[in-house]
Amino acid sequence: MTMMVAARVIAATTARSVVRSTRLPLQSPSLYVFAQRKSHSHTLLIRQMSSEAPSVVTRLQSSGLFRSQGLIGGKWIDAYDGKTFKVHNPANGEVITNVPLMGKRETDDAISSAHDAFKSWSKLTAADRSNRLRKWYELLIAHKEELGQLITLEQGKPLKEAMGEVTYGASFIEFFSEEAKRVYGDIISPTLADRRLFVLKQPVGVVGVITPWNFPLAMITRKVGPALACGCTVVIKPAELTPLTALAAAELSLQAGIPAGVVNVVMGDAPAVGDAILASSQVRKITFTGSTAVGKKLMAGAAGTVKRVSLELGGNAPCIVFDDADVDVAVKGAIAAKFRNTGQTCVCANRIFVQEGIYEKFADAFSKAVQSLQVGDGFGEGVSLGPLINEAAVQKVEKFLQDATTKGAKVLLGGKRHSLGMTFFEPTVLTDVKNDMLLSREEIFGPVAPLLPFRTEEEAIALANDTNAGLAAYIFTNSIQRSWRVTEALEYGLVGVNEGLISTEVAPFGGVKQSGLGREGSKYGLDEYLELKYVCLGNMGGN
Q: Which residues, 6+ apart, have CB-to-CB distance to 54 below 8 Å?
């Protein structure tokens, strides 16, 4: 596979199989609203949503965080040919701003800047790098409100979730600011008396960072934090759908005293940017979060220059509810695992297996709880679910639902676009789901919860493992013996027991099988950005 072919799929990177749909500029929000709504009350609501965006942009501009240029070598620049593309608010389709449509030349310059900066950044003491990362963390937290608003504006998730993402994303910078001081080597007992043997850990070099739209801050900091802590420099390619959060985070890195060229951001022409990253011998590692299909192609493209690769790819997470579980705990945990970010996360519960003895009871309690979830613009009070990222995402959900209902699944709740229109979708619960349906075989990436019955523990494990994915899994049981048996048997990189929200900066994140390579977060996350060097000192004396 050529690097160009591998790079061309990065246009869809930006998480899972959802691609960006073509949008027309909105000349009049009200005209669009009337085309989408029949209800006058809905029209008023959408107008209210639309009025929120300009005030958010104004606040962000006054804080200096509303950047709309790329960052190369510490300078904010436009595309060399002046081309731009639009960034939209998924809640109303309106254009937020235009950003540079960058390509090969800009990416090559960003790589050169990162390569030059590596020479000095990698030579700083660990304490110096630690202090600058700590300052970056403090600035992220100080601007939590503005960053949260920016995430909601361009990604659509509820503001409360967006603020939570800022805290979560900043935690990686804080954690790795400390881990920077704990990159240790080894002393090896010599095999000969006149030799001394030891192992150094040294930074990989320039890292290409390719991130998705569903967590536009946290997926960057989870990669960039350990890279910078180890002494690497980075070229970030954020998702085309959500570049503004990446630019704001990069601005704060400069304010924190991280030198020019250490953090670079390019966005735009995904095939051209991707091809430049893959082809460059100066880029020694690629770290990517997105679909398994794209990850495979990046891995193949990286082979040309034998780059190291870290991949966090698609999931098909099972959530297993045993009949000895506390149903209230299981309902709460399953909803958290399923509906966070409107179901648009790689660790979302994609299949909810419920033991036959409590299937009806769980389905009833679960659907009642789901029914209380409020759908709306992320800036709205009490909103639990925002819009799906674009029209392609909605069409994918509809395709999966049609396949399921055609094969016998029953819609217990939801099952269609929300009356708000746009890309809002009703939270959906399906029963009588079978293992051969599309939504059991592939990642849904939407607010759809399929409930599948099972009889025995062995059957549940077999069903859960019957997939090429292996990222996250969840089990609910009051038996400590069962929790241990099932956890060991599940072929997944992360397992939550009686808990639906399990990600944390102090624990390793990553999958097995076709869900990826490597780990992010925790002390193990440092190793992804370090090379081992063995040194043998001879003629050291001895008996």
A: none
- Enumerate domains of the chain plus CATH numbers: 3-15+67-312 (3.40.605.10), 317-505 (3.40.309.10)
Terminal CA-CA length for the chain:
57
Q: pTM for the complete prediction?
A: 0.91
Residue 371 Cα distances to 315, 363, 365, angstroms: 26, 12, 10
* Order of all β-strands in the sheet with 530-537: 186-188, 196-203, 530-537
pLDDT band at 484 (very low <50, low <70, confident <90, very high): very high
Give residue 536's Cα distance to chain centre.
42
Cα dihedral value 365, 366, 367, 372, nearest 10? 90
By annotation, the residues acting in catalysis are 312
Burial class (CB in 10 A: 0-12, 13-18, 19+), 465: middle
Element (H, E) at 468: none
Tell me the C-alpha distance between 131 and 235, whole Å. 22
C-beta separation of 529 from 188 below 8 A: no
Residue among 216, 290, 225, 289 at smallest CA distance from 263 = 225
Amino acid identity of residue 259, one-letter, is P
pLDDT bracket for residue 230 (50, 70, 90): very high
Cβ(344)–Cβ(390) below 8 Å: no
C-alpha closest to that of 429 among 355, 382, 357, 359: 359
Listing from the earlier edge strand, what are the strands of the sheet with 448-454? 410-413, 428-431, 448-454, 349-355, 317-321, 472-476, 494-497
Position 55 scores a pLDDT of: 80
**What is the number of alpha carbons within 13 Å of residue 358 lying toward its C-beta?**
21
Per-position DSSP letters for 42-62, written without gaps between them: HHHHHHHHHHHHHHHHHHHHH
3-class DSSP state of 351: strand
**pLDDT tens figures, 405-422:** 999 999 999 999 999 999
CB 260 within 8 A of CB 120: no
74: tokens are 């510490």
The pLDDT of residue 323: 98
Rounded-to-integer distance, Cα 453 and Cα 375, Å = 28
Instruction: List CB contacts of 419: < 8 A, sequence separation 6 or more.
Output: 37, 39, 42
CA distance 399 to 441: 13
Q: How far apart are CA 314 and CA 443, in angstroms?
A: 7
pLDDT (0 to 100) of residue 53: 64
Q: What is the pLDDT of residue 141?
A: 99
Q: Answer yes or no: are the C-beta atoms of 233 and 206 closer than 8 Å.
A: yes
Crossing angle for the helix pair 40-63 and 29-36, to the nearest 10 degrees: 140
